[in-house]
Amino acid sequence: MAKNINIKSIALLSVATALTLGSCGDDEPEVNVPVTYEFLRDGASTVSFTGQTTRILMAEELATAMKDFDQSDTDLQEMFANADAVGGDVSPFSDADLNASTKSIRSKVAASADIFSTNTAEAATIKSQMDQWIAAQASEVFLNKEELAEAGKAGQIADGTSTRYISAKGLEYNQAVTKSLIGALMADQILNNYLSTTVLDEASNIADNDAGTVADGEAYTNMEHKWDEAYGYLFGKSSSTASPLADLGADNFLNKYLLRVENDADFAGIAQEVYDAFKEGRAAIVSGAYEKRDKQGDIIKEKISDVIGIRAVYYLQQGKKAIEAEDFGGAFHDLSEGFGFVYSLRFTRDEGSNNSKFSSADVESFTSQLLEGNGFWDVTPATLDAISESIAAKFDFTVAQAAE
After folding, report:
1. Could you give the CA distance from residue 75 to residue 223 in angstroms, rounded to a whole number?
2. Crossing angle, helix 254-262 and helix 222-235, to 10 degrees?
3. Quick check: 403 and 317 in contact, CB under 8 A?
4. Which residue, 48, 162, 50, 186, is CA-closest to 112?
5. Are the CB atoms for 349 and 115 separated by under 8 Å?
6. What is the C-alpha to C-alpha distance for residues 304 and 309, in angstroms, rounded to an integer?
7. Listed residue (110, 21, 112, 101) closest to 57, CA to CA
8. What are phi and psi for residue 153, nearest 5 degrees?
9. If you write DSSP's letter for every residue of 17-29 in order, what string do you get?
10. Among the listed residues 170, 337, 154, the one whose alpha carbon sits nearest the alpha carbon of residue 256
11. Which DSSP helix (H) or strand (E) runs through 104?
12. Residues 60 and 167 sit within 8 Å (Cβ to Cβ)
């Protein structure tokens, strides 16, 4: 076969290849991408995201505590806000290191540079909404744990062999909080904060990165660290943060649902795409290739936004099926998860802009429709289909693909 190769075709192919490789950032340095997410300077790792791991661990303890009837509202609120912090009278976490930390979940909710730095009123509303859901779990759901739920009355409802504990509108507040944090904490900080050029290129970050000037007492430049902090909100609890796809699903937040979407045949390969983009973008920072960095950031923004949109539609459609089968416990559980993902749509990223794919008015419309009247007790399959179609229209997937 080799004897039949056309020499002219080889020449044309070589020219085309050269144009392809040189078409993006011709003047930028060459980028050497490592096999795994490992970056060194003078033999020391430059990768650090301990704060992100801490907040993931705090959020996991909060999610567990919201299902523990022995928890008080004070403890739940402290897990969220850590207002007492070090040396205070309240130590809500089972992990002593978390009780000793000055970090908090609440401070980073709706706190991104691109969307909320000039939108503090909405940011305060979002934080307050989560405060209210947490308080209602204690004052409404915990107090009615022995009651049978019905329309307009909080209590318990059977879901197969499980028991769900729901509000008067059928909403599991614990699911609303947990799934909303995927957007309001993890996605917002990744997509709209740490991968933002506003943050990456802040002050003298470009000059310092070009010169290899590291942060005081650290092995990394400020720009390297900002990128790693984005990485940490996705992979901060992985057993190997250098090779995190080996135990995808390591936490109960964004990492878990990246795995769920990866396991859908329609979206297989998305986890590798996200990991590769993180790795290649970080290597571009090391090389000072900022156009290449930003292109990898755009891939991450698109794919993580996809995860939120896909799972929002998935749970709405699962809830619809359960309603049609008159399995209301199962329906309310799916719709509660879907509600949190719908709320998280506010924190997705619209390609090519500093805005979300969904405005606050969009999300308010969706959530209001879900909770209208007696909420999940009244919501219809037609309404769930309409919301699902509205969500999918902003993405490159169909309702049928996400619903499988």
Report:
1. 36
2. 70
3. yes
4. 186
5. no
6. 9
7. 101
8. -140, 125
9. HHHHHHSS-TTSP
10. 337
11. none
12. no
